[in-house]
Amino acid sequence: MAIETLVEWMKNSNSTVVLTGAGMSTESGIPDFRSQSGWWQNIDPRSVASVESLQHHYELFREFYQMRIEALTNIEPHIGHQILADWEKRGLVALIATQNVDQLHHKAGSEEVAELHGNIVTIRCTSCVKPHTIEHFLNNSVCTYCTGKLRPNVVLFGESLPQEAWNLSFNEIQNADLVIVIGTSLEVYPVNQLPRMARGKLVYINLDVSGSTRQFDLVLEGSAGEVLTKIDQKLALF
Ligand code: APR
Hints:
By secondary structure, the chain is of the alpha/beta class. 34% of the residues lie in helices and 18% in strands. It has a six-stranded parallel beta sheet with strand order 3-2-1-7-8-9, sandwiched between helices. A three-stranded antiparallel beta sheet has the order 5-4-6. A hairpin with a 5-residue loop joins strand 4 (118-125) and strand 5. The longest helix has 14 residues, at 224-237. The chain is elongated and about 60 Å long. The model has no long low-confidence stretch (mean pLDDT 96). It binds adenosine-5-diphosphoribose (APR). Adenosine-5-diphosphoribose binds next to loops. Residues 21-23, 26-27, 32-35, 38, 45, 99, 117, 183-185, 187-188, 206-208, 223-224 line the site of adenosine-5-diphosphoribose.
Protein backbone atom coordinates (compact mmCIF):
# COMPACT_ATOMS: atom_id res chain seq x y z
CA MET A 1 0.00 0.00 0.00
CA ALA A 2 2.75 2.50 0.93
CA ILE A 3 4.52 1.90 -2.38
CA GLU A 4 1.31 2.62 -4.33
CA THR A 5 0.75 5.81 -2.34
CA LEU A 6 4.27 7.01 -3.08
CA VAL A 7 3.90 6.19 -6.79
CA GLU A 8 0.68 8.22 -6.83
CA TRP A 9 2.45 11.17 -5.19
CA MET A 10 5.35 10.91 -7.64
CA LYS A 11 2.98 10.90 -10.61
CA ASN A 12 1.18 14.01 -9.32
CA SER A 13 4.35 15.86 -8.29
CA ASN A 14 5.70 18.73 -10.41
CA SER A 15 8.88 18.79 -8.40
CA THR A 16 10.41 15.90 -6.46
CA VAL A 17 13.68 16.20 -4.53
CA VAL A 18 15.65 13.27 -3.10
CA LEU A 19 17.89 13.70 -0.01
CA THR A 20 20.38 10.85 0.50
CA GLY A 21 22.86 9.69 3.11
CA ALA A 22 25.42 6.95 3.64
CA GLY A 23 22.72 4.26 3.70
CA MET A 24 22.32 4.93 -0.04
CA SER A 25 25.83 3.56 -0.65
CA THR A 26 26.05 0.53 1.67
CA GLU A 27 24.68 -1.83 -1.01
CA SER A 28 27.64 -0.73 -3.15
CA GLY A 29 29.98 -1.93 -0.41
CA ILE A 30 30.76 1.34 1.43
CA PRO A 31 30.03 1.30 5.18
CA ASP A 32 27.77 4.00 6.62
CA PHE A 33 28.78 5.84 9.80
CA ARG A 34 26.47 4.98 12.69
CA SER A 35 25.19 1.45 11.99
CA GLN A 36 26.80 -1.62 13.66
CA SER A 37 29.35 -1.83 10.85
CA GLY A 38 29.69 1.96 10.44
CA TRP A 39 32.95 3.94 10.35
CA TRP A 40 32.23 5.69 13.66
CA GLN A 41 31.82 2.39 15.56
CA ASN A 42 35.59 2.13 15.96
CA ILE A 43 36.80 5.64 15.09
CA ASP A 44 36.07 8.92 16.86
CA PRO A 45 34.93 11.23 14.02
CA ARG A 46 36.41 14.30 15.74
CA SER A 47 39.87 12.70 15.79
CA VAL A 48 40.04 12.15 12.00
CA ALA A 49 37.40 14.24 10.19
CA SER A 50 37.62 17.66 11.84
CA VAL A 51 39.47 20.91 11.26
CA GLU A 52 41.29 20.14 14.51
CA SER A 53 42.62 16.83 13.13
CA LEU A 54 43.62 18.46 9.80
CA GLN A 55 45.61 21.16 11.59
CA HIS A 56 47.09 19.21 14.50
CA HIS A 57 47.00 15.51 13.57
CA TYR A 58 47.61 15.63 9.84
CA GLU A 59 49.07 12.10 9.49
CA LEU A 60 46.01 10.57 11.24
CA PHE A 61 43.73 12.74 9.09
CA ARG A 62 45.53 11.78 5.87
CA GLU A 63 45.59 8.05 6.71
CA PHE A 64 41.84 8.09 7.42
CA TYR A 65 40.95 9.71 4.09
CA GLN A 66 43.48 7.57 2.25
CA MET A 67 41.60 4.56 3.66
CA ARG A 68 38.22 5.99 2.61
CA ILE A 69 39.47 6.94 -0.87
CA GLU A 70 41.00 3.49 -1.40
CA ALA A 71 37.76 1.92 -0.15
CA LEU A 72 36.14 3.53 -3.22
CA THR A 73 38.32 1.55 -5.60
CA ASN A 74 36.22 -0.80 -7.81
CA ILE A 75 33.04 0.45 -6.12
CA GLU A 76 30.11 0.83 -8.51
CA PRO A 77 26.67 2.44 -8.12
CA HIS A 78 23.93 -0.09 -7.37
CA ILE A 79 20.43 -0.43 -8.85
CA GLY A 80 19.11 2.24 -6.47
CA HIS A 81 21.55 4.86 -7.81
CA GLN A 82 20.69 3.84 -11.38
CA ILE A 83 16.94 4.12 -10.79
CA LEU A 84 17.35 7.65 -9.37
CA ALA A 85 19.46 8.64 -12.40
CA ASP A 86 16.78 7.20 -14.70
CA TRP A 87 14.04 9.07 -12.83
CA GLU A 88 15.98 12.32 -13.36
CA LYS A 89 16.09 11.65 -17.11
CA ARG A 90 12.32 10.96 -17.08
CA GLY A 91 11.68 14.24 -15.25
CA LEU A 92 10.51 12.47 -12.07
CA VAL A 93 13.37 13.83 -9.91
CA ALA A 94 14.51 17.47 -10.05
CA LEU A 95 17.49 17.25 -7.68
CA ILE A 96 19.46 14.83 -5.51
CA ALA A 97 20.79 16.58 -2.41
CA THR A 98 23.36 14.24 -0.92
CA GLN A 99 25.48 14.00 2.20
CA ASN A 100 27.59 11.38 0.45
CA VAL A 101 31.12 12.18 -0.69
CA ASP A 102 31.59 9.14 -2.98
CA GLN A 103 30.09 10.62 -6.19
CA LEU A 104 28.18 7.37 -6.85
CA HIS A 105 25.11 9.39 -7.90
CA HIS A 106 27.25 11.13 -10.55
CA LYS A 107 28.77 7.78 -11.57
CA ALA A 108 25.22 6.39 -12.09
CA GLY A 109 24.46 9.29 -14.44
CA SER A 110 22.62 11.74 -12.19
CA GLU A 111 23.41 15.31 -13.27
CA GLU A 112 21.45 17.45 -10.82
CA VAL A 113 23.36 16.56 -7.63
CA ALA A 114 24.09 18.94 -4.72
CA GLU A 115 27.08 17.71 -2.69
CA LEU A 116 26.19 19.06 0.75
CA HIS A 117 29.30 17.54 2.38
CA GLY A 118 31.64 17.96 -0.59
CA ASN A 119 33.47 14.88 -1.88
CA ILE A 120 36.60 12.83 -1.31
CA VAL A 121 37.47 12.32 -4.98
CA THR A 122 38.85 15.83 -5.59
CA ILE A 123 41.80 17.36 -3.71
CA ARG A 124 43.00 20.86 -2.89
CA CYS A 125 45.81 22.59 -1.00
CA THR A 126 44.76 23.77 2.45
CA SER A 127 46.79 26.99 1.98
CA CYS A 128 46.62 28.16 -1.66
CA VAL A 129 43.49 26.08 -2.43
CA LYS A 130 44.99 24.98 -5.77
CA PRO A 131 43.58 21.65 -7.03
CA HIS A 132 45.80 18.56 -7.01
CA THR A 133 45.40 14.97 -8.17
CA ILE A 134 44.24 12.23 -5.86
CA GLU A 135 47.60 10.50 -6.50
CA HIS A 136 49.41 13.52 -4.99
CA PHE A 137 47.32 13.16 -1.83
CA LEU A 138 47.68 9.37 -1.66
CA ASN A 139 51.46 9.71 -2.15
CA ASN A 140 51.57 12.07 0.82
CA SER A 141 52.90 14.83 -1.38
CA VAL A 142 52.72 18.49 -0.39
CA CYS A 143 51.31 21.26 -2.58
CA THR A 144 53.49 21.75 -5.68
CA TYR A 145 52.85 25.51 -5.57
CA CYS A 146 53.26 26.43 -1.88
CA THR A 147 54.24 23.17 -0.09
CA GLY A 148 50.98 23.39 1.88
CA LYS A 149 49.13 20.30 3.13
CA LEU A 150 46.72 18.58 0.72
CA ARG A 151 43.16 17.58 1.66
CA PRO A 152 40.00 16.19 0.01
CA ASN A 153 37.21 18.68 -0.80
CA VAL A 154 35.12 17.14 1.97
CA VAL A 155 33.28 19.19 4.63
CA LEU A 156 34.98 18.50 7.96
CA PHE A 157 33.38 18.76 11.39
CA GLY A 158 33.81 22.41 12.31
CA GLU A 159 33.45 23.65 8.73
CA SER A 160 30.40 25.21 7.09
CA LEU A 161 28.67 23.57 4.15
CA PRO A 162 29.28 24.74 0.56
CA GLN A 163 26.93 27.72 0.17
CA GLU A 164 25.78 26.94 -3.38
CA ALA A 165 24.86 23.32 -2.61
CA TRP A 166 23.08 24.39 0.60
CA ASN A 167 21.07 27.20 -1.02
CA LEU A 168 20.05 25.01 -3.96
CA SER A 169 18.97 22.14 -1.67
CA PHE A 170 17.18 24.46 0.76
CA ASN A 171 15.18 26.22 -2.01
CA GLU A 172 14.37 23.08 -3.98
CA ILE A 173 13.27 21.18 -0.84
CA GLN A 174 11.17 24.10 0.38
CA ASN A 175 9.36 24.40 -2.99
CA ALA A 176 9.08 20.70 -3.81
CA ASP A 177 5.74 18.89 -3.99
CA LEU A 178 7.49 15.76 -2.75
CA VAL A 179 10.71 15.14 -0.79
CA ILE A 180 12.07 11.58 -0.50
CA VAL A 181 14.71 11.05 2.21
CA ILE A 182 16.80 7.87 1.68
CA GLY A 183 19.43 6.11 3.82
CA THR A 184 20.27 8.68 6.49
CA SER A 185 19.95 8.75 10.29
CA LEU A 186 19.35 12.53 10.07
CA GLU A 187 21.65 12.96 13.07
CA VAL A 188 23.95 15.55 11.57
CA TYR A 189 23.25 19.27 11.61
CA PRO A 190 22.42 21.30 9.50
CA VAL A 191 21.31 18.76 6.85
CA ASN A 192 18.97 17.12 9.39
CA GLN A 193 16.99 20.38 9.39
CA LEU A 194 16.29 20.28 5.65
CA PRO A 195 13.31 17.87 5.80
CA ARG A 196 11.60 20.34 8.15
CA MET A 197 11.74 22.96 5.38
CA ALA A 198 9.58 20.79 3.10
CA ARG A 199 6.12 22.28 2.42
CA GLY A 200 5.15 19.26 0.28
CA LYS A 201 4.84 15.59 1.11
CA LEU A 202 7.77 14.09 3.03
CA VAL A 203 8.78 10.42 2.67
CA TYR A 204 11.44 8.37 4.52
CA ILE A 205 13.08 5.23 3.07
CA ASN A 206 15.51 3.66 5.55
CA LEU A 207 16.71 0.31 6.84
CA ASP A 208 16.27 1.45 10.44
CA VAL A 209 13.05 3.34 11.14
CA SER A 210 13.15 2.89 14.92
CA GLY A 211 14.02 6.55 15.50
CA SER A 212 11.44 9.38 15.46
CA THR A 213 9.67 9.43 12.09
CA ARG A 214 6.79 11.71 13.16
CA GLN A 215 7.75 14.41 10.67
CA PHE A 216 7.22 12.06 7.71
CA ASP A 217 3.95 11.58 5.82
CA LEU A 218 5.07 8.11 4.72
CA VAL A 219 7.78 5.72 5.99
CA LEU A 220 9.10 2.77 3.98
CA GLU A 221 11.32 0.41 5.94
CA GLY A 222 13.90 -1.49 3.87
CA SER A 223 17.07 -1.20 1.85
CA ALA A 224 17.35 1.60 -0.70
CA GLY A 225 18.00 -0.75 -3.63
CA GLU A 226 15.03 -3.02 -2.87
CA VAL A 227 12.52 -0.29 -2.07
CA LEU A 228 13.49 1.85 -5.09
CA THR A 229 13.20 -1.24 -7.31
CA LYS A 230 9.66 -1.94 -6.02
CA ILE A 231 8.64 1.69 -6.62
CA ASP A 232 10.14 1.65 -10.11
CA GLN A 233 8.25 -1.55 -10.96
CA LYS A 234 4.95 0.02 -9.79
CA LEU A 235 5.73 3.20 -11.71
CA ALA A 236 6.10 1.12 -14.87
CA LEU A 237 2.55 -0.17 -14.45
CA PHE A 238 1.01 3.30 -14.52
N1 APR B 1 19.22 1.14 2.62
C1 APR B 1 18.55 2.06 3.40
N2 APR B 1 19.02 2.54 4.58
C2 APR B 1 20.22 2.08 4.98
C3 APR B 1 20.98 1.12 4.24
C4 APR B 1 20.41 0.64 3.02
N3 APR B 1 21.04 -0.25 2.26
N4 APR B 1 22.14 0.86 4.91
C5 APR B 1 22.11 1.64 6.04
N5 APR B 1 20.95 2.36 6.07
C6 APR B 1 20.53 3.38 7.06
C7 APR B 1 21.00 3.09 8.48
O1 APR B 1 20.00 2.34 9.18
C8 APR B 1 21.15 4.49 9.07
O2 APR B 1 19.92 4.94 9.64
O3 APR B 1 21.19 4.57 6.67
C9 APR B 1 21.44 5.37 7.84
C10 APR B 1 22.87 5.88 7.75
O4 APR B 1 23.03 6.81 8.79
P1 APR B 1 24.51 7.37 9.15
O5 APR B 1 25.45 6.26 9.21
O6 APR B 1 24.34 8.25 10.33
O7 APR B 1 24.92 8.20 7.85
P2 APR B 1 24.42 9.68 7.43
O8 APR B 1 23.05 9.97 7.95
O9 APR B 1 24.65 9.82 5.98
O10 APR B 1 25.50 10.58 8.22
C11 APR B 1 25.46 11.96 8.01
O11 APR B 1 27.50 12.19 9.25
O12 APR B 1 29.52 11.40 9.75
C12 APR B 1 28.90 12.36 9.06
O13 APR B 1 29.67 13.50 7.15
C13 APR B 1 29.19 12.27 7.55
O14 APR B 1 27.64 12.68 5.74
C14 APR B 1 27.80 12.01 6.96
C15 APR B 1 26.87 12.53 8.03
